[in-house]
Amino acid sequence: GKDLKMYGLSNVPDVTVLPIESSFRAIILASDGLWDVYSAQEAAVIAQTARAAGAANYSLAIMVK
């Protein structure tokens, strides 16, 4: 592949591994594009609102817009 470092891009991901616990209500898997726009708290509120409304794909649609 092309070296895009000169454009500020890297093909090496930042990865965080966390244990999944039964108390988790949602898991948000996202790229830096989402985190550049939303804080963790904002993303959690969107996911919780969508879950409460029974719309599994609603939060995805909101975050992608």
TrEMBL record:
SUPFAM superfamilies, per database record: PP2C-like
Domain PPM-type phosphatase residues, every copy: 7-54
InterPro entries xref list: PPM-type-like_dom_sf (IPR036457), PPM-type_phosphatase-like_dom (IPR001932)
UniProt superkingdom: Eukaryota
Protein name per UniProt: PPM-type phosphatase domain-containing protein
